[in-house]
Design brief:
It comes from Chelonobacter oris. This protein is of the alpha/beta class and 125 residues long. The chain has four helices and four strands. 41% of the residues lie in helices and 12% in strands.
Length: 125
């Protein structure tokens, strides 16, 4: 099971966990996320992230499509495999982000890719 959670709500009960944000979350001490893997490589590229944040409501579907393409990149595959292996060890992995709205950020796309799903819920891809 993959859990999606805001980093500000993280507790050690959520381990194993990965911070899937390119930037370190504001106001969060690194010691608070001890044991959490920080993988910037599985996050949306900076250019895509900036483009999306200009109009998140209107651009979400296209953002999901582009992010899925970015995750298909050969260099990202080893890190995605690392996450799948981490998940397989305990049949659980918490994906963390500082995004305010988890349902409309990159984590649902990452979750679907990790699970091998083609469709992203509530998104027409």
């Amino acid at each position: 099971m993959y859990l999606l959670k805001r980093v500000y709500d993280f507790s050690t009960a959520d381990l194993p966990a990965v911070l899937a944000d390119r930037l370190w979350p504001r106001g969060v001490a690194k010691a608070r996320l001890d044991g959490v893997l920080w993988l910037k490589s599985v996050t949306p590229p900076d250019e895509l992230r900036r483009w999306f944040h200009q109009d998140p409501d209107m651009r979400y579907d296209e953002f999901c499509r582009r992010y899925r393409q970015a995750l298909a990149n050969e260099e990202t595959q080893a890190d995605l495999q690392q996450l799948r292996q981490l998940h397989a060890r305990q049949n659980k992995l918490t994906l963390l982000t500082a995004a305010k709205t988890i349902e409309r950020c990159h984590l649902p796309v990452l979750q679907c890719v990790l699970q091998g799903e083609i469709d992203i819920p509530n998104v027409s891809v």
